[in-house]
Amino acid sequence: MSWELVRMQDIFDISRGGSPRPINDYLTDQENGVNWIMIGDTKGGGKYISKTAKKIKPEGVKKSRFVKEGDFLLTNSMSFGRPYILKTSGCIHDGWLVLSPVNENIHTDYFYYYLGSKEIKIILASKAAGAVVKNLNKDIVKNLKIPLPPLDQQKKIAAILDAADAYRQKTKALITKYEELTQSLFMDMFGDSDRFEQKLISDIASDKKYSLSSGPFGSNLTSKHYTDTGVVILRGTNVTSGVLDLTKVKYVSESKAKELKRSELTPGDVVVVAVGSSGKALRIPDNLERAIMSQNFNKITPNTNIVSALYLQFCFNSQLVQNQFKKEMTDTVRTFLSLTKIKRVTIPVPPIELQNQFAERVQAIQVQKTQAQASLVQAEDLFNSLLQRAFKGELS
Hints:
The chain is α+β, with helices and mostly antiparallel strands. The chain has three domains: 4-148, Adenine-n6-DNA-methyltransferase TaqI, Chain A, domain 2 (Alpha-Beta Complex); 150-186 and 351-396, Helix Hairpins (Orthogonal Bundle); 197-349, DNA methylase specificity domains (Adenine-n6-DNA-methyltransferase TaqI, Chain A, domain 2), CATH 3.90.220.20. The protein has ten helices and 27 strands. It has helices at 8-11, 108-115, 118-127, 138-142, 151-190, 254-259, 309-317, 319-328, 339-343, 352-390, and strands at residues 4-7, 12-16, 27-28, 34-37, 48-49, 54-56, 65-67, 72-75, 83-86, 90-92, 96-101, 145-148, 197-200, 212-214, 226-227, 231-234, 239-240, 243-244, 250-252, 264-265, 270-273, 281-283, 291-293, 297-300, 330-331, 335-336, 346-349. Strands 2-11-8-9-5 form a five-stranded mixed beta sheet. It has a five-stranded mixed beta sheet with strand order 3-6-4-10-7, with no helix packed on it. Strand 25 and strand 26 (335-336) form a beta hairpin. Helix 2 packs across helix 5 (151-190) and helix 5 runs antiparallel to helix 10. The mean pLDDT is 89.
């Protein structure tokens, strides 16, 4: 089915936000304050913005851009082009573009999905200015050509995609609940840390060579050493929101890996992020038989007679140990946590039998979480398939 292609400026009034400066002089807690809509008011994966954390004084409105319920917002920098629908009114800063429908034949939910599609993101990315930080100006959006089906078909498409998205979001929420459950279990079993023996991290490492080590620095490992096959390199880009992501990896040759023996990783090792989101810990899984860590990490191979790798991972990520890590971090351009400083941090060490009980319970939860993750893959595939069909006119 072929739909009319129209420019966005023909169906939306498109404007950029503005910020009264200095903004701190305009923030207020008074009841007559006007909602100040910020990126932080969005929820991950959420479609709507329904409330704000901050307000500005009424006199700041004329120096900003007032938006109303039903308007459509696009981020125009950083995660540019991310769409949201307003369920409230307020003012927006210059990190937003606002799109206001010019007539009643525009269903914003339809355009939410269309502008959030992969195809549109690719188009916007190719047009956005800025080598490091992409910026999406209003002229790019104004001149974007999009298919415009009749209003009843817009609503039908949006309803189908809403249902598919609801299934996807419900599955994501279930995975989050399993993650929260494991955290709660850890606190129930080990939250009262004072009742356990305290040991330095340097004292709980295995006695094998390189059980405490850091990634290679300087010219020892750079992109020029990368190969198409060989031994996996664990890089900072392989850690997303504290989770190990091995979908996109780089490699080094076997000969280079041998040079970096002290930075080798095997299942059961625990790595602590050294640069950026410093202090976050991950356990090397069984399916990663061997890898070389980059300079972004420090490694602890635990003495399993004293501490299990699973317990160590959760312990490192607990508030108790994270607070100690923060005291040890060097704050330059990016925070940095050296191996030397990690070694002098102390952790509670419960009896190994209790740690093993924890591992068994976590494993039972993990089975359910794995099933939910498999369901999420199916939900994502279904949603993306429907999204592609929708804008080809196959769902109307």
